[in-house]
Amino acid sequence: MPFSLRSRWTIPAAGATAVAAALVISPMVADASPSLPPRTAAELLASTTAAADHPFSGTVVETARLGLPDLPMSGAGSTSLSATSLVTGSHTARVWYAGPGRSRIALVGDLAESDVIRNGTDAWTWSSATNTAQHLTLPSETAKAPTPTIDVTPAQAAAKALAAIDPTTTVTVEGTASIAGRSAYELVLAPRDAGSLVAQVRLAIDSVTSTPLRVEVFARGAGKPAFETAFTSITFATPDPAVFAFSPPRGAKVTEQTMGAAPAPGARPDAAKDAAQPTVVGTGWTSVAVIKGVDLSAAGGNAQLSTLLRSAKQVSGSYGTGRVVTTALVSALLLDDGRLLVGAVTPAVLEQAATRAG
Amino acid sequence: MPADPSPAIATRGLTKRFRSGQVAVDGIDLMVPRGCVYGFLGPNGSGKTTTIRMLLGLVSATEGEHELLGESMPAHAASVLPRVGALVEGPAFHPYLSGRANLMRLDAGDRSVAAAGAGRRVDEALERVGLAAAAGKRYRNYSLGMRQRLGLAGALLRPRDLLVLDEPTNGLDPQGTREVRTLVRELGAEGSTVFLSSHLLSEIEQVSTHVGVMSHGRLVFQGTLTALRQAAGVRVRVETTRPDEAAAVMRALGTGTTAVHATSGVTSSVVADLSDGDGTPVDTAQLVEQLVKAGVPVHEVVVERPDLEDLFVELTGEGFDVDQ
Amino acid sequence: MRSQPLRLFRSELRLVFGRRRNQALLAVLSTAPILIGIAVRVSSPGGDGEGPAFLGQITQNGLFLAFTALTVTLPFFLPLSVAVVSGEAIAGEASSGTLRNLLVVPVDRTRLLLVKYASIVVFGLAAALVVWGVGLIVGLLLFPHGAVTLLSGTTVSFANALGRALLVALYVAAMLAGVGAIGAFFSTLTEVPMGAMAATAVLTIISEIVGAVPQVRVIWPYLFTTPWLAFGDLLRSPVPLHAMAIGLLTEGVYIALFLLLAWARLTTKDISS
Ligand SMILES: Nc1ncnc2c1ncn2[C@@H]1O[C@H](COP(=O)(O)OP(=O)(O)OP(=O)(O)O)[C@@H](O)[C@H]1O
Ligand SMILES: [Mg+2]
Fold first, then answer.
1. What is the value of ipTM here, to two decimals?
2. CB-count exposure of residue C249 (10 Å: 0-12, 13-18, 19+)
């Protein structure tokens, strides 16, 4: 009898073990590499660039580990959904795609949502937190052209990576992966230039539709990707057209803009905007963006930025003096003359660029 | 009721060793026949309540086994316990519910009765313990005696074959004590077996047919009340001016322990057990005759039947400290 | 005899809801939407982006008061009230000694645990519905109502939004059932109800703190508090079910494990009070 009573505890213990086992095994099953017929890098690249537009809808999770300071998040509804918040932490977006002129990305936050909707010649942005909408009317000939939006979908990120393929890159196919329940080839792009902070970019390409399902960017010497965006679920079917039909809700602040027409006077009272148009120095993996006239006192209120700057290292050279901030994937050099150089490169490359652009 | 060979309570080597290492109940073999009123006696801390908890399956026995109404416990608790009414270590109820609501809750837990009769069962039980008038009062406003009565009512919610009552007269006034005594006799007369614990022998003596005596976790006596009385033994006291001669005569007649006590005044008293334990008791008439024949002046002869209280103290040990 | 198994459950519900302390808990919870509603009403409109989610929308649509009140009470007040009731469940009966009465009736220990847990779940549901219902009534009394703008910017009818709000309350109740299972387990460990209540509340708060520290992001998916705010997905169009399904699964696993622990403890425990 004492034994049978004591043995009752083995039942919750067995339950806990089963849960732990499920937690350990299920990612292993999900990660198991599917076996697919071998393909060369060239075949894969060709199929990707020639990939027919497959309509789909799915959920994408983007994770950045750039080595920026993490700050505890406060209570509900505070998650900001601005594009800059994408450089830290993990974010979820819902994506619908019905063709070049019809797409929607919803950046999902706790009790908040930011949407970018493209429906023919209408483009909308919507932010639930501020209750604001922007309406952009595009010229009719662009109705089928892709929308320039933030690089959150694997398709957009892959397109960028593929554009960077030039003699400075080694391209290989390294095995297969299973992503969102689909089998994919892993295409690996590795920069040859040691000045790049990027060790490799891995693209997982759907074996059937050639749609990129995951993009991982590895920094040099890092075991985990510094930036990763992947579908957690995807369905290849044309989404419900209602998804793309957006009309601004009653009570929302709506800004109207027509592409090509000059912005209405006073619509964007942002004088610094023109001064901050970047120029690009260098090519490929080691290209550096140079922005002039950056005034840091304007950003004094931003806690995250001032924390970053406090940790910055003082540098000087023939280009002048300044401070350099290095993260896993991006370096920034802020010169005292107001120039800001940013690139996925080592600080040395930034300093060279500063000298050359001087 | 039909004669059932199986005893109401039977335990074999029932033992409880608490995690502290203390042995509260040490291998007891209870035997409670059907239909009897069994007085379970013992000083504070002797293990009565712990035994009762084991009998009802509240506490698991470290060793040993037991049966209630012929079925082994705790395996058959679901079928046995509905036939057992219990009051364990005083009453315990929800303070902010009325007495009636508290009993309704207990009735609701009983799967073996129909919901329809709940109100009637509860009212009858309240009536039986004399609480009908205070049924609607919150339990927190009950006096100690009312609480004890409500506890009894809980045990009497339905006709029971066995009642296990742990110190049911605790906190009752003399009148309440007498009522409980009457109640226990009635229950016994109705055919229920009553297992009644107490540290007061006088109480047990008045209602019980059988007695078990606990001391330091052990069952030091078990049997009928008559057997207990016999075990107590009868003594004779002789007042005389010549004690030593008297003692010699008494020893010659075969008395048990014989001792001389000096008393005040001229006489001394000689006290002797009328039985030495194995022989037949000495006849008092013959003793007086022999004393007179021997020329011993007899001032007074008293036959003493020591009350059970003394025996109880003898069995369980004297002293103010509780068993522990 | 068919209604037999429910008798004890009904008695348990009467005990939980008849208790003044628990009624006071529900009353305190109902003040949350009332206070928010009055505060928003008397303060000047505007000030968007500040404060809890949906606060800005309340002045346009009273229905949002129900959402705001649930959002505000979910991190602390709702789990606290469930912690109180669940911590009380077994430990309360043990401390008053009534546990031994029930067990000798006899009430099977497994059945007692299930009945107790079911009544905790019902109390959690009632708490969520009180916040929701009072929020709805006060919102509709103080503010205009009509079609509702979802997080996705889509506008739906008032009836549609009301249905979504009810689902939100049900989801919140399911999340609170997880707290209730933890509380029920702690309640089997002690005879001091306050101890079980405090342990449950503290564990909930620790889980929420851990869930806000990005350095330990890897364990976030395993915390029982992480999926709580996923109810926001009911206010998107189309409604994504994945996060809420994960949330229900997480709570389900917690409930199963803690109820098994509570069962193992209660059925082997010596009742010596
Ligand atoms: N849960 C427990 N843990 C440790 N020891 C205990 C426990 N319950 C009882 N005891 C000890 O067991 C012994 C017997 O206690 P029990 O309550 O059975 O005595 P009792 O005969 O009922 O006394 P009383 O007449 O005072 O009610 C006591 O020494 C007590 O301290
Ligand atoms: Mg006792």
1. 0.86
2. exposed
